[in-house]
Automatic annotation (TrEMBL):
It comes from Zooxanthella nutricula. Keywords: Membrane, Transmembrane, Transmembrane helix. This is Uncharacterized protein. The chain crosses the membrane at residues 74-93, 235-258, 270-289, 301-324, 330-352. The keyword Membrane applies.
Amino acid sequence: HVLAVPNEKSSIYSRVWCAYEAFLAYEWDKHIETAESPSRHMWPRVIRSMAVYSAILGATMQAAPSIYEARLNWIIPQFVFTGATLVLTVFVRHFLGRERERLHLALRATFTVQVALVAGGLACLITNATMWMVLVLYACGCGALAADQLRAKEAAKQARQLQTGFEGRIRDAQSSVQADYERIMAEIQAGGSEEAVDHAVEVLIRMGMSTRELRQTARLAGNLGNVTHWDLTHVVFMFGCGIVAPACLLNLRVWYASDLVSADFWNLNWPYAACTAEGIIFAVIFARTPRDRQAFAAKSLVAGNVVLVAAMVELIHILFAGFFSNWEVTATISAVSAPLFLATVVVGPAFIARTPLVGPTLVRLVLTGRLPG
Protein backbone atom coordinates (compact mmCIF):
# COMPACT_ATOMS: atom_id res chain seq x y z
CA HIS A 1 0.00 0.00 0.00
CA VAL A 2 1.05 3.60 -0.68
CA LEU A 3 -0.36 6.56 1.26
CA ALA A 4 -0.17 10.08 -0.18
CA VAL A 5 -0.39 12.77 2.53
CA PRO A 6 -1.38 16.29 1.35
CA ASN A 7 -0.27 19.46 3.13
CA GLU A 8 -1.56 23.02 3.24
CA LYS A 9 1.60 24.64 1.85
CA SER A 10 1.77 23.17 -1.65
CA SER A 11 0.82 20.12 -3.65
CA ILE A 12 2.92 17.07 -2.89
CA TYR A 13 2.90 16.43 -6.63
CA SER A 14 4.74 19.70 -7.24
CA ARG A 15 7.79 17.85 -5.87
CA VAL A 16 9.47 15.65 -8.44
CA TRP A 17 10.23 12.85 -5.98
CA CYS A 18 6.58 12.58 -4.85
CA ALA A 19 5.21 12.64 -8.38
CA TYR A 20 7.68 10.00 -9.54
CA GLU A 21 6.99 7.76 -6.55
CA ALA A 22 3.25 8.04 -7.22
CA PHE A 23 3.88 7.03 -10.83
CA LEU A 24 5.97 4.02 -9.81
CA ALA A 25 3.27 2.87 -7.39
CA TYR A 26 0.68 3.30 -10.13
CA GLU A 27 2.77 1.35 -12.64
CA TRP A 28 3.55 -1.40 -10.15
CA ASP A 29 -0.18 -1.89 -9.53
CA LYS A 30 -0.02 -0.81 -5.90
CA HIS A 31 -2.98 0.16 -3.74
CA ILE A 32 -2.72 3.97 -3.47
CA GLU A 33 -4.81 6.14 -1.16
CA THR A 34 -4.79 9.83 -0.32
CA ALA A 35 -4.89 10.63 3.39
CA GLU A 36 -7.90 12.61 4.60
CA SER A 37 -7.94 15.00 7.53
CA PRO A 38 -10.84 14.53 9.97
CA SER A 39 -13.68 17.02 9.60
CA ARG A 40 -13.61 19.71 12.27
CA HIS A 41 -16.59 20.04 14.58
CA MET A 42 -18.21 16.99 13.02
CA TRP A 43 -20.10 15.70 16.03
CA PRO A 44 -21.31 19.12 17.31
CA ARG A 45 -22.78 19.82 13.86
CA VAL A 46 -24.38 16.39 13.67
CA ILE A 47 -25.86 16.67 17.16
CA ARG A 48 -27.13 20.18 16.44
CA SER A 49 -28.89 19.00 13.29
CA MET A 50 -30.48 16.11 15.17
CA ALA A 51 -31.51 18.47 17.96
CA VAL A 52 -33.27 20.78 15.49
CA TYR A 53 -35.06 17.77 14.07
CA SER A 54 -36.09 16.62 17.56
CA ALA A 55 -37.42 20.07 18.48
CA ILE A 56 -39.55 20.33 15.34
CA LEU A 57 -40.66 16.72 15.83
CA GLY A 58 -41.92 17.46 19.33
CA ALA A 59 -43.70 20.63 18.23
CA THR A 60 -45.33 18.78 15.35
CA MET A 61 -46.61 16.02 17.61
CA GLN A 62 -48.15 18.63 19.88
CA ALA A 63 -49.76 20.51 16.98
CA ALA A 64 -51.04 17.46 15.09
CA PRO A 65 -54.82 17.22 14.58
CA SER A 66 -56.64 14.99 17.03
CA ILE A 67 -58.87 13.28 14.45
CA TYR A 68 -57.34 10.35 12.55
CA GLU A 69 -58.67 11.38 9.12
CA ALA A 70 -57.40 14.92 9.59
CA ARG A 71 -53.98 13.60 10.53
CA LEU A 72 -53.92 11.41 7.42
CA ASN A 73 -54.78 14.29 5.11
CA TRP A 74 -52.24 16.46 6.91
CA ILE A 75 -49.29 14.07 6.78
CA ILE A 76 -49.51 12.72 3.21
CA PRO A 77 -48.66 16.02 1.42
CA GLN A 78 -45.74 16.48 3.81
CA PHE A 79 -44.53 12.97 3.02
CA VAL A 80 -44.68 13.62 -0.72
CA PHE A 81 -42.82 16.92 -0.40
CA THR A 82 -40.14 15.34 1.79
CA GLY A 83 -39.58 12.53 -0.69
CA ALA A 84 -39.28 15.07 -3.50
CA THR A 85 -36.78 17.08 -1.44
CA LEU A 86 -34.68 13.97 -0.80
CA VAL A 87 -34.65 13.06 -4.50
CA LEU A 88 -33.75 16.64 -5.44
CA THR A 89 -30.95 16.72 -2.85
CA VAL A 90 -29.47 13.48 -4.13
CA PHE A 91 -29.57 14.52 -7.78
CA VAL A 92 -28.13 17.97 -7.05
CA ARG A 93 -25.22 16.48 -5.14
CA HIS A 94 -24.67 13.67 -7.64
CA PHE A 95 -25.00 15.52 -10.93
CA LEU A 96 -24.21 19.16 -10.06
CA GLY A 97 -21.37 18.49 -7.64
CA ARG A 98 -20.70 19.60 -4.08
CA GLU A 99 -19.38 23.09 -4.74
CA ARG A 100 -22.71 24.93 -4.52
CA GLU A 101 -22.61 25.36 -0.78
CA ARG A 102 -25.55 27.75 -0.41
CA LEU A 103 -27.83 25.51 -2.44
CA HIS A 104 -26.83 22.48 -0.38
CA LEU A 105 -27.37 24.43 2.85
CA ALA A 106 -30.86 25.47 1.74
CA LEU A 107 -31.72 21.90 0.78
CA ARG A 108 -30.39 20.66 4.11
CA ALA A 109 -32.51 23.12 6.09
CA THR A 110 -35.62 22.36 4.04
CA PHE A 111 -35.05 18.64 4.33
CA THR A 112 -34.54 18.73 8.10
CA VAL A 113 -37.77 20.67 8.64
CA GLN A 114 -39.78 18.45 6.31
CA VAL A 115 -38.44 15.23 7.82
CA ALA A 116 -39.34 16.43 11.30
CA LEU A 117 -42.86 17.34 10.17
CA VAL A 118 -43.35 13.94 8.56
CA ALA A 119 -41.93 12.08 11.56
CA GLY A 120 -44.19 13.98 13.93
CA GLY A 121 -47.22 13.28 11.79
CA LEU A 122 -46.38 9.60 11.43
CA ALA A 123 -45.84 9.24 15.17
CA CYS A 124 -49.34 10.60 15.76
CA LEU A 125 -50.86 8.60 12.92
CA ILE A 126 -49.25 5.23 13.64
CA THR A 127 -48.64 4.30 17.25
CA ASN A 128 -47.32 0.75 16.93
CA ALA A 129 -44.10 -0.38 18.60
CA THR A 130 -41.94 -0.17 15.47
CA MET A 131 -42.60 3.52 14.87
CA TRP A 132 -39.65 4.44 17.08
CA MET A 133 -37.37 2.97 14.39
CA VAL A 134 -38.73 5.47 11.87
CA LEU A 135 -38.14 8.38 14.24
CA VAL A 136 -34.56 7.22 14.89
CA LEU A 137 -33.99 6.70 11.16
CA TYR A 138 -35.06 10.25 10.37
CA ALA A 139 -32.85 11.61 13.15
CA CYS A 140 -29.87 9.69 11.74
CA GLY A 141 -30.68 11.00 8.27
CA CYS A 142 -30.61 14.61 9.47
CA GLY A 143 -27.31 13.99 11.24
CA ALA A 144 -25.90 12.31 8.14
CA LEU A 145 -26.85 15.32 6.03
CA ALA A 146 -24.86 17.60 8.34
CA ALA A 147 -21.92 15.18 8.21
CA ASP A 148 -22.05 15.10 4.42
CA GLN A 149 -21.80 18.87 4.25
CA LEU A 150 -18.63 18.85 6.35
CA ARG A 151 -17.17 15.94 4.41
CA ALA A 152 -17.80 17.82 1.17
CA LYS A 153 -15.87 20.80 2.53
CA GLU A 154 -12.95 18.58 3.48
CA ALA A 155 -13.00 16.97 0.03
CA ALA A 156 -12.86 20.40 -1.62
CA LYS A 157 -10.03 21.40 0.71
CA GLN A 158 -8.09 18.26 -0.15
CA ALA A 159 -8.54 18.92 -3.87
CA ARG A 160 -7.14 22.44 -3.43
CA GLN A 161 -4.17 21.13 -1.46
CA LEU A 162 -3.31 18.62 -4.18
CA GLN A 163 -3.54 21.24 -6.92
CA THR A 164 -1.80 24.21 -5.26
CA GLY A 165 1.47 24.79 -7.07
CA PHE A 166 1.04 21.78 -9.34
CA GLU A 167 1.29 22.74 -13.00
CA GLY A 168 0.00 19.43 -14.35
CA ARG A 169 3.35 18.23 -15.69
CA ILE A 170 6.25 16.41 -14.09
CA ARG A 171 8.55 18.63 -16.14
CA ASP A 172 7.45 21.62 -14.03
CA ALA A 173 7.93 19.86 -10.69
CA GLN A 174 10.60 21.03 -8.29
CA SER A 175 13.31 19.52 -6.16
CA SER A 176 15.43 20.97 -3.38
CA VAL A 177 18.43 19.20 -4.92
CA GLN A 178 18.91 19.96 -8.60
CA ALA A 179 20.93 16.79 -9.17
CA ASP A 180 17.99 14.69 -7.97
CA TYR A 181 15.66 16.48 -10.37
CA GLU A 182 17.98 15.90 -13.31
CA ARG A 183 18.52 12.24 -12.45
CA ILE A 184 14.78 11.53 -12.08
CA MET A 185 13.89 13.38 -15.27
CA ALA A 186 16.62 11.54 -17.16
CA GLU A 187 15.22 8.22 -15.98
CA ILE A 188 11.68 9.23 -16.97
CA GLN A 189 12.73 10.46 -20.39
CA ALA A 190 14.85 7.38 -21.02
CA GLY A 191 11.78 5.23 -20.50
CA GLY A 192 9.52 7.54 -22.49
CA SER A 193 7.25 7.82 -19.46
CA GLU A 194 6.73 11.55 -19.09
CA GLU A 195 3.11 11.48 -20.27
CA ALA A 196 2.45 8.37 -18.19
CA VAL A 197 3.70 10.16 -15.06
CA ASP A 198 1.45 13.14 -15.76
CA HIS A 199 -1.50 10.80 -16.29
CA ALA A 200 -0.87 8.85 -13.07
CA VAL A 201 -0.72 12.04 -10.99
CA GLU A 202 -3.84 13.43 -12.67
CA VAL A 203 -5.73 10.22 -11.86
CA LEU A 204 -4.70 10.31 -8.21
CA ILE A 205 -5.74 13.95 -7.82
CA ARG A 206 -9.10 13.36 -9.48
CA MET A 207 -9.99 10.01 -7.93
CA GLY A 208 -8.28 10.23 -4.53
CA MET A 209 -7.45 6.53 -4.76
CA SER A 210 -6.09 4.03 -7.25
CA THR A 211 -6.37 0.26 -6.96
CA ARG A 212 -6.24 -2.64 -9.36
CA GLU A 213 -10.06 -2.74 -9.46
CA LEU A 214 -10.32 0.97 -10.23
CA ARG A 215 -7.59 0.88 -12.86
CA GLN A 216 -9.39 -1.95 -14.66
CA THR A 217 -12.63 0.02 -14.43
CA ALA A 218 -11.03 3.19 -15.80
CA ARG A 219 -9.52 1.34 -18.76
CA LEU A 220 -13.00 0.15 -19.75
CA ALA A 221 -15.22 3.07 -18.74
CA GLY A 222 -12.89 6.04 -19.14
CA ASN A 223 -12.04 8.73 -16.61
CA LEU A 224 -13.82 8.30 -13.29
CA GLY A 225 -14.71 10.83 -10.64
CA ASN A 226 -13.72 10.91 -6.98
CA VAL A 227 -14.14 7.40 -5.61
CA THR A 228 -13.50 8.19 -1.96
CA HIS A 229 -16.48 10.45 -1.25
CA TRP A 230 -20.15 9.52 -1.33
CA ASP A 231 -23.36 10.68 0.34
CA LEU A 232 -23.97 9.10 3.72
CA THR A 233 -27.45 10.65 3.80
CA HIS A 234 -28.66 8.74 0.80
CA VAL A 235 -27.20 5.49 2.12
CA VAL A 236 -28.95 5.96 5.48
CA PHE A 237 -32.33 6.69 3.94
CA MET A 238 -32.12 3.96 1.33
CA PHE A 239 -31.25 1.46 4.05
CA GLY A 240 -34.20 2.85 5.98
CA CYS A 241 -36.51 2.42 3.02
CA GLY A 242 -35.24 -1.12 2.58
CA ILE A 243 -35.34 -2.22 6.21
CA VAL A 244 -37.34 0.03 8.52
CA ALA A 245 -40.28 0.95 6.27
CA PRO A 246 -41.24 -2.60 5.21
CA ALA A 247 -40.68 -3.88 8.76
CA CYS A 248 -43.10 -1.27 10.09
CA LEU A 249 -45.68 -2.06 7.41
CA LEU A 250 -45.33 -5.77 8.11
CA ASN A 251 -45.82 -5.13 11.81
CA LEU A 252 -48.96 -3.12 11.08
CA ARG A 253 -50.50 -6.13 9.36
CA VAL A 254 -49.85 -8.54 12.23
CA TRP A 255 -53.00 -8.66 14.33
CA TYR A 256 -52.29 -11.85 16.26
CA ALA A 257 -49.15 -13.82 17.06
CA SER A 258 -50.60 -16.74 15.13
CA ASP A 259 -50.38 -14.65 11.94
CA LEU A 260 -46.62 -15.12 11.96
CA VAL A 261 -47.00 -18.87 11.39
CA SER A 262 -49.81 -18.58 8.87
CA ALA A 263 -49.04 -19.45 5.25
CA ASP A 264 -51.83 -17.16 4.05
CA PHE A 265 -50.30 -14.23 5.93
CA TRP A 266 -46.89 -14.68 4.29
CA ASN A 267 -48.43 -15.24 0.86
CA LEU A 268 -50.03 -11.82 1.16
CA ASN A 269 -47.10 -10.03 2.78
CA TRP A 270 -44.03 -11.62 1.22
CA PRO A 271 -42.88 -8.35 -0.45
CA TYR A 272 -42.43 -6.65 2.93
CA ALA A 273 -40.49 -9.58 4.37
CA ALA A 274 -38.37 -9.82 1.23
CA CYS A 275 -37.60 -6.08 1.28
CA THR A 276 -36.54 -6.22 4.92
CA ALA A 277 -34.30 -9.25 4.38
CA GLU A 278 -32.75 -7.76 1.24
CA GLY A 279 -32.13 -4.47 3.03
CA ILE A 280 -30.32 -6.23 5.87
CA ILE A 281 -28.26 -8.27 3.41
CA PHE A 282 -27.27 -5.16 1.50
CA ALA A 283 -26.31 -3.33 4.72
CA VAL A 284 -24.01 -6.21 5.67
CA ILE A 285 -22.52 -6.38 2.17
CA PHE A 286 -21.97 -2.61 2.10
CA ALA A 287 -20.24 -2.62 5.49
CA ARG A 288 -17.87 -5.35 4.30
CA THR A 289 -17.28 -3.92 0.83
CA PRO A 290 -13.68 -2.82 0.15
CA ARG A 291 -13.21 0.93 0.19
CA ASP A 292 -12.47 1.12 -3.53
CA ARG A 293 -15.91 -0.37 -4.23
CA GLN A 294 -17.92 1.50 -1.61
CA ALA A 295 -18.32 4.64 -3.69
CA PHE A 296 -19.78 2.61 -6.55
CA ALA A 297 -22.12 0.80 -4.15
CA ALA A 298 -23.22 4.04 -2.47
CA LYS A 299 -23.63 6.08 -5.64
CA SER A 300 -25.50 3.29 -7.40
CA LEU A 301 -28.20 3.75 -4.76
CA VAL A 302 -29.34 6.67 -6.90
CA ALA A 303 -31.13 3.98 -8.89
CA GLY A 304 -33.15 3.30 -5.75
CA ASN A 305 -34.90 6.60 -6.30
CA VAL A 306 -37.14 4.68 -8.69
CA VAL A 307 -38.59 3.00 -5.61
CA LEU A 308 -39.02 6.36 -3.88
CA VAL A 309 -40.81 7.74 -6.93
CA ALA A 310 -43.11 4.71 -6.92
CA ALA A 311 -43.83 5.33 -3.24
CA MET A 312 -44.68 8.97 -3.92
CA VAL A 313 -46.98 7.97 -6.78
CA GLU A 314 -48.80 5.63 -4.42
CA LEU A 315 -49.05 8.40 -1.85
CA ILE A 316 -50.53 10.77 -4.41
CA HIS A 317 -53.02 8.06 -5.31
CA ILE A 318 -53.87 7.73 -1.62
CA LEU A 319 -54.35 11.48 -1.40
CA PHE A 320 -56.87 11.56 -4.23
CA ALA A 321 -58.50 8.16 -3.67
CA GLY A 322 -59.12 8.82 -0.01
CA PHE A 323 -58.02 5.47 1.42
CA PHE A 324 -54.87 4.16 3.05
CA SER A 325 -52.61 1.74 1.17
CA ASN A 326 -49.75 -0.36 2.47
CA TRP A 327 -47.48 0.34 -0.50
CA GLU A 328 -48.00 -3.08 -2.08
CA VAL A 329 -46.83 -1.88 -5.50
CA THR A 330 -43.72 -0.17 -4.12
CA ALA A 331 -42.82 -3.15 -1.96
CA THR A 332 -43.21 -5.54 -4.88
CA ILE A 333 -41.04 -3.38 -7.17
CA SER A 334 -38.37 -3.17 -4.49
CA ALA A 335 -38.44 -6.89 -3.66
CA VAL A 336 -38.18 -7.93 -7.31
CA SER A 337 -35.48 -5.45 -8.35
CA ALA A 338 -33.27 -5.72 -5.25
CA PRO A 339 -31.56 -9.04 -6.15
CA LEU A 340 -30.28 -7.59 -9.44
CA PHE A 341 -29.05 -4.51 -7.63
CA LEU A 342 -27.34 -6.60 -4.94
CA ALA A 343 -25.60 -8.67 -7.60
CA THR A 344 -24.35 -5.49 -9.27
CA VAL A 345 -22.83 -4.26 -6.01
CA VAL A 346 -21.25 -7.63 -5.18
CA VAL A 347 -19.45 -8.08 -8.51
CA GLY A 348 -18.07 -4.53 -8.45
CA PRO A 349 -17.55 -1.79 -11.06
CA ALA A 350 -14.81 -3.56 -13.03
CA PHE A 351 -17.05 -6.54 -13.74
CA ILE A 352 -19.98 -4.30 -14.69
CA ALA A 353 -17.73 -2.26 -17.00
CA ARG A 354 -16.92 -5.45 -18.93
CA THR A 355 -20.60 -5.90 -19.81
CA PRO A 356 -20.94 -5.23 -23.55
CA LEU A 357 -22.60 -2.00 -24.70
CA VAL A 358 -24.18 -0.82 -21.44
CA GLY A 359 -21.48 -1.64 -18.87
CA PRO A 360 -19.03 1.26 -19.39
CA THR A 361 -21.85 3.78 -19.73
CA LEU A 362 -23.53 2.57 -16.55
CA VAL A 363 -20.33 2.67 -14.49
CA ARG A 364 -19.38 6.11 -15.78
CA LEU A 365 -22.86 7.46 -15.07
CA VAL A 366 -22.84 6.09 -11.53
CA LEU A 367 -19.35 7.26 -10.55
CA THR A 368 -19.26 10.61 -12.33
CA GLY A 369 -22.88 11.55 -12.94
CA ARG A 370 -22.04 12.02 -16.62
CA LEU A 371 -22.31 9.91 -19.73
CA PRO A 372 -19.12 8.96 -21.59
CA GLY A 373 -18.24 11.46 -24.23
